[in-house]
Write a structure and sequence with these properties.
homodimer; 340 residues; alpha+beta; 60s Ribosomal Protein L30, Chain: A; 2 domains; seven-stranded mixed sheet; 9 helices
Chain lengths: 340, 340
């Protein structure tokens, strides 16, 4: 037992000296271990299988740090894997950078790092680079994590909004709103009869399987902040097409829908952390759907709409359950601070 | 003029909706612009010149945000460029991820982003990926920035601590302590007769020039947090050799030395943000030194010591100005929170 190691993070843990080294060697490396990061070099040396790569980053500030279905560590790993996955890449390597508030219990950090490491391991992604900063009490809220990631682009896959055509199908990989409503409910300490749970998961295995086995996928995106509404609005704005979706076809877990309605949220605007939207040519849509349904992360997948001509402006239209039509707007942004 | 855009950052700027989009399109993209980031995809697509890459990340929490010689934006770009540079790579692409405290003046953010963009442009590095999160007032201290970076490894360059041999020279690219003492002085509002200034700068042009024109460089590292003392201690610990340095040969700006002594700091422990240490074989040392001295960022370079046998333990020994000897210890870590 190392009697020098305090149970809480001290400012000195971020100073770049002996305590930083201890924190890295005793708490970070043992969980993450791989040959590349073990060198503790200024940068990780990677021999990628191809120079055609994708590169992405996200910072995670979710509150609370632990939520039903995950924690900030799992979220930070899965989120960046997903950004690479929906870009048509196979994720290979991640960086993990911590901004820690002085006083954070080291046992909490251990749990979060174990969870991040497990998510990376399960997805065959190596955490190869990292950084640890500590700020004084009150200068951050417990812990923020940044991950950046490199993926190797799948051969022959070239996704882009310019490829969209009228008649393409909108495929959604599963239920919406689970992550966001879980966070909101926990933050407001609301209990439901049926527990709701974040969908936090890494989608690369599923997206790679679809992209390797079908030809018709034109674009993919994960509907995180701003939810399905934001993602579809980004798609129409970037393609200058319109999209029509059908409310009855959108999978939503009933307790999530109930929670959203009770709290006055539109579930279309609520963040997801383990779902993707794919725009697929009509002749490949059923095949892509079939691949989804065979995978645990896509068993509730559905074709929820189609690409149509933008007659006036590139809009997203919802055919409601009772057959009416309404425009799905880009959310303004105030819904959900610190959802991810 | 856009009357919708408030002069301060709102929580909604981080919500992933219209305000996030506005912030990105009006304040971030115009400064950074390049073809890759303009796509606003989930991940940037890069065609690297080689699959042999380096990958690095750092989060920046420096306080104050603006300091003599730079700001957090320039620091975040230069810092990650330097980590790639000292690893023997030519930096190619960066990500830039912001964690903003609600209420930050957008004009400050503009200045910082302009500064980050200028540093990237001057060093031929593209900022290709980004992320923006906003946390509520009090949950962060104004602004934290993470950068991650990809560099292509220089052909034939393979740096590593295992290559060190007795007799190798320790080359330091310039004066030490400038960054750290500037930050400390500004934080404590201490004025000196001669103004001191951070050395914040990107070293890749100089490191690439040395690595491409000499053969004897075995290892490089930038002495940031923990200063020269931490870097040399890491080098001896990783190589199982000892290092002997000579105090009279270590370049220090006099006002920096005076400030450090007045405030009770050992300048060896103070952070630098535009310097590197290189371990070079004896037959290449003068050539490497010459290349440094011809470059604006290396004109004060000096050979400050040599690698010796570790007789008992891998220690760093300083020959003092009066000819005495003392062991340079790894700093404990408490010296300087939020120095970078």
């Amino acid at each position: 037992m190392n009697t020098e190691q305090p149970p809480k993070i001290l400012l000195a843990h971020g100073g770049g000296g002996r305590l930083t080294d201890q924190l890295i060697r005793q708490h970070i490396l043992p969980k993450i271990k791989n040959d590349t990061i073990a060198e503790l070099a200024d940068a990780a040396k990677l021999n990628l299988s191809s120079p055609q790569v994708c590169f992405s980053t996200d910072s995670y500030v979710v509150k609370p740090l632990f939520f039903n279905g995950g924690d900030i560590g799992k979220l930070a790993v899965c989120g960046t894997i997903n950004d690479l996955a929906v870009s048509g890449a196979k994720p290979v390597a991640l960086s993990l950078s911590l901004i820690i508030e002085e006083g954070l219990e080291i046992s909490l950090l251990d749990k979060i790092l174990s969870s991040a490491a497990a998510a990376a391991r399960e997805n065959n992604v190596l955490i190869v680079a990292g950084d640890t900063k500590v700020v004084e009490l009150g200068a951050a809220d417990k812990l923020f994590i940044n991950t950046a990631g490199i993926g190797v682009r799948l051969t022959g896959v070239d996704l882009g909004l310019d490829k969209l055509a009228v008649g393409d199908k909108v495929l959604l990989s599963g239920t919406i709103g689970d992550h966001g409503m879980t966070i909101i409910s926990q933050r407001q300490d609301i209990k439901f009869q049926t527990e709701i749970q974040s969908d936090c998961a890494a989608l690369a295995e599923l997206t790679c399987s679809i992209l390797e086995n079908t030809n018709g996928v034109k674009f993919m995106r994960d509907p995180t902040r701003g939810g399905l509404a934001a993602t579809l609005n980004e798609i129409v704005a970037g393609s200058n097409k319109a999209i029509e979706i059908s409310e009855v076809d959108i999978p939503v877990n009933l307790p999530v829908l109930a929670a959203a309605e009770m709290l006055g949220f539109d579930v279309l605007n609520i963040a997801n952390e383990g779902k993707f939207v794919a725009i697929v040519s009509p002749d490949s849509a059923e095949q892509a759907l079939g691949i989804c349904k065979e995978h645990p992360l896509g068993r509730d997948a559905a074709i929820i709409g189609r690409v149509i001509e933008a007659t006036q402006a590139p809009l997203v239209e919802l055919i409601t359950k009772i057959g009416g039509r309404r425009i799905v707007q880009m959310p303004y942004g105030r819904e959900l601070p610190r959802i991810c």
